[in-house]
Write a structure and sequence with these properties.
Keywords: Activator, DNA-binding, Methyltransferase, Transcription, Transcription regulation, Transferase. GO terms for molecular function: DNA-binding transcription factor activity; methyltransferase activity; sequence-specific DNA binding; zinc ion binding. By secondary structure, this protein is of the alpha+beta class. The protein has 9 helices and 4 strands; from the N terminus they run αβββαβααααααα. The protein has a 4-stranded mixed sheet. β1 and β2 form a beta hairpin. The protein has 3 domains: 60 residues, DNA Methylphosphotriester Repair Domain; 44 residues, Arc Repressor Mutant, subunit A (Orthogonal Bundle), CATH 1.10.10; 63 residues, Arc Repressor Mutant, subunit A (Orthogonal Bundle).
Amino acid sequence: MNPLSFDEMWARIMACDSSYDGLFYTAVKTTGIYCRPSCRSRKPKKVNVEFYLHMDDAETAGYRACKRCRPENEHSPNVGVVREVKEFLIRHHKQKLELKDIAQHVGLSAYHLDRLFKQETSVTPRVFLEKIRMDRAAHLLMHTGQSNLEICYEVGFLSPSSFYKAFRQAMGCSPSEYRKTIHMAQEESSS
């Protein structure tokens, strides 16, 4: 089961977010093609999209690989480990995680995992975990009526002050300002 909702995956492909590459694939019913989340090709209509967790599943369903983003080309031998770490972080983002916990899950030393992950993704597992939490918080702010405090704990922060600080650093505004801006933009687009 995918820990990301359809709308969360849709947001990642609309943002061409390469940090989610390998975690899921976007298949377009009208073209018969599947892509990475970071593909820069023209975006399909939302109703024409299906998501798959594995390339094999997309190919079994009759889709072929995109010739632009070439999802079937995984150049590094560490791609599998990085994908496993990303999946682990997405599934457990609500929990208090330390590097040793993540390393133990993939069978590496904490030092080696940190170095390998950063080499492959240009960020550490801790930074990636915070990105997952911020993406999830932004999604909840847009699509739910939960309070900022509820969202803080829902996405895995242990204190509101660390949540507000991380959110402001990542998004450039407070959670309340973000929600207000999003709702104003939605109202303008619907009128």
